[in-house]
Predict the structure.
Amino acid sequence: MLNITFINKNLAFDSLVKIAHIIRYGILLAFLALFTVFSLRHFVLGGDVAASVDALCPFGGIETLLVFITTGGFVPRILMSSLILSIGVFLTVLFFKRGFCGWICPFGTIQELLGLITKKKKLPAFDRPARYLKYILLIAILLLTTYTGYLVFRDYDPFLTFFHFGKGIFWDFEPDAIITHTIAFAITITVLIASVFISRVWCKYLCPLGAGMAIFSRFGLTSIVRDSKNCNKCKRCDKVCPVGVKVSNVKKIKDTECIDCKICVDECPKKVLKNQFFGYNIPSWLYGLFVVAVLFATIFISIDMGSWQSIPDGDLVTEDGTIDLASIKGWMTLNQLSNGTQIPTTVFYEGLSIPLEVDPETPIKDLSQKYGLSIHAEDIRTFIETLPEEKSITCPWGIEDDDAPGLCGLYVDSDNNNICDFSE
Ligand code: SF4
Ligand code: SF4
């Protein structure tokens, strides 16, 4: 009789643990699917219709923070949406510590899924010192990005590389950037393979966003507490923790490496681990939903306030009248380029030797595939830099064509004889 009761209790416990895992993986997979769909939309529909991965990455908001505070602007490729997402993630940290890592981050999910391939996980000998690498990487990225005004880490970021689905090498081949893309692929593949054998390897050692969250997570309002009197010291919590936190010998988890996945809480057979929020014990699934709710609330409030912007507005001329070259993207058509820069399309056709049969509605990135022209966004940036500034932007005769902005054909005086060479 005793045995049957024991077996029943064990079965009930196992079922509860399974349900807890299903809920967490359900949330993680939903975010992974959502992010994958959003990334694919960008590549299929174009950057003027669907947001880029950069615009949806909260780390971009952190990278641009110093530039935003000092100048009010953004590092190229970063839009208001990145900043809002980073504020949303920051709020989740203040309330729920690293719940974003444990319940939302798509790259964390990919690592966890790969980790399911084998149970033989290793904690490398360099484990603890190597955890500081992510802080060094975070500081280096912030300083260098602010100093150069360029997203220095972007080209090598495995998160971004993964969600570009082989772009630059397997499709939309970019011969000029082949070395950069190859390095980025090598890093990404290494991280993915390592995730099979070392759980959450990127999160533990290198993720700069995780490092930023870890710094502030000590102020988070939730915590996991352990009732040491009723703990039987089975150390199951230590075994199941994906990031190697020693749970079984503390009364309260204060380790900032904890990603708040709550697996230890749900797997504890004696139920002596509790999620505490303002003095209340809350179930793990509710904790997960709270984290999601804070992030979505931030997004929806910003949309409601009209602050959310995840797609560039297409205007490439800055307030001081210069052209924002870094914002020229491969998805822009020749017409969009002309409207955004206020440089007539004819200047691009003539200057870049584009045959007249090329449709001005062709995106820059398709010029090579559709017309065999080796012209990329970088070539256009270089070309614009060679144009005489005043003549390419401001009409010296003060004539503007309001119906077709950027198409005023009167102000390109290519041979400097004060006669307009494109006058109609
Ligand atoms: S540490 Fe970085 S990659 Fe890992 S879950 Fe957190 S944000 Fe995502
Ligand atoms: S200590 Fe618990 S909640 Fe924190 S990462 Fe480890 S298993 Fe997850």
